[in-house]
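Problem 12. The chain below contains 70 residues. Write out its predicted structure in token notation.
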Amino acid sequence: LLSKTSTDFAALAPDQPTILRGAPALAPRSRRRYHSKTRRHVVADFAKSAKCAVRNFISASVHNYLVRDN
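Solution.
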């Protein structure tokens, strides 16, 4: 579970420095809108990985419960 989420964040990490670096060149005037947009995207990515982690955790706990029951 933890290794999967860490690999998800490691896969997400390389994109973010380039996005942050390219932002002022793209839109220097709409800095507030850019920041809210990236925060929304970061939150969406985090929610996606968290949802995946929760699903894996639930399936693992159900699997452990069934195995222990048998």
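Discussion. The first helix runs from residue 2 to 12. Students who got a different answer should revisit the alignment rule from Section 12.3.
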